[in-house]
Design the sequence.
């Protein structure tokens, strides 16, 4: 089985951070979004990964090669973003007839990965939501098999949203349906959508079983990213460098502090993730994500998302600033 991870999106809802950093490499709870996904699938036994890259794709390549040298990896460039269906079609020659597990590059979920990977059926991940109109929606029969999937329906027949996890056994069937979309120019909201290809497969007799995820962490915009960071820190307990000694500093767990940080005269936490080699002095930081090689001096930060190589000085409350930024409130 091969894993396909589409990470070509521009991440417009997380700007300014995604001007300089792919969304999949945004840090959360001490790891990147991408590493959560790859680690789950690798631990379930998948060793071959196809990354569909586009905007800032070289950074994805560099990150994967540096952090996962043991994996077999392929990188496919989606130069024109024409939808998830178009992205998956680009992997046809690499996939061949192998089964695939598709995990969208901004999807962190809790579920029994091994059970799904080893299932005898194709499977789609679902989660009950209050308003399914902004998601792909699955109609599930009493037998647990999916009867229909629709992308962002105006009048949903179900409140079961597709979470972006797809285990597909009949890949030849998948690529036939993708070809059908292109041949008939079937688009949803102007794009060739994977959901439409899956519905085509169902209509032609493919059987998909639904599996419910325990938790679905939204990493698509600042507010939900910070909420997901807090939840994951609570779940995994955070981490700090083993032999750290932060002078005159109070740590209120859970927090995650990467190696090489210089912290003094500060209060850190709860729910704070700090990247490597960051300096924080005479500051209070809570409910925030701070990038690597960043400097904070005499600031009070709450519910903030600060990029890498940034510098913030003076008093502040809530910020959302990207990489290579300098702010002086003095």
Sequence:
């Amino acid at each position: 089985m091969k894993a396909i991870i589409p990470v070509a999106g521009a991440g417009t809802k997380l700007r300014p951070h995604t001007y300089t950093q792919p969304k999949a490499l945004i840090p959360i709870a001490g790891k990147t979004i991408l590493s959560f996904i790859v680690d789950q699938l690798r631990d379930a036994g998948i060793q071959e990964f196809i990354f569909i890259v586009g905007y800032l794709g070289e950074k994805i390549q560099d990150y994967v090669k540096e952090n996962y040298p043991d994996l077999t990896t392929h990188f496919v460039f989606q130069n024109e973003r024409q939808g998830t269906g178009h992205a998956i079609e680009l992997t046809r020659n690499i996939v061949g007839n192998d089964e695939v597990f598709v995990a969208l590059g901004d999807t962190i979920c809790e579920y029994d990965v091994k059970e799904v990977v080893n299932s005898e059926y194709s499977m789609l991940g679902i989660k009950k939501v209050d308003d399914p109109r902004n998601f792909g929606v699955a109609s599930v029969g009493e037998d647990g098999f999916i009867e229909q999937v629709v992308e962002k329906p105006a009048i949903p027949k179900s409140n079961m949203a597709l979470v972006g996890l797809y285990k597909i056994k009949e890949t030849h069937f998948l690529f036939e349906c993708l070809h059908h979309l292109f041949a008939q120019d079937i688009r949803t909201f102007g794009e060739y959508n994977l959901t439409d290809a899956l519905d085509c497969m169902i209509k032609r007799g493919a059987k998909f079983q639904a599996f419910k995820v325990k938790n679905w962490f939204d990493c698509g915009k600042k507010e939900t990213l910070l909420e997901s960071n807090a939840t994951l820190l609570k779940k995994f307990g955070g981490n700090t460098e083993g032999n750290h000694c932060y002078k005159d500093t109070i740590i209120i767990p859970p927090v995650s502090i990467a190696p090489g940080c210089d912290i003094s005269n500060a209060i850190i936490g709860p729910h704070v993730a700090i990247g490597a080699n960051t300096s924080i002095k005479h500051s209070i930081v809570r409910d925030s994500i701070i990038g690597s090689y960043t400097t904070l001096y005499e600031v009070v930060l709450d519910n903030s998302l600060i990029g890498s190589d940034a510098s913030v000085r003076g008093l502040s409350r809530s910020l959302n600033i990207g990489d290579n930024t300098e702010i002086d409130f003095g």
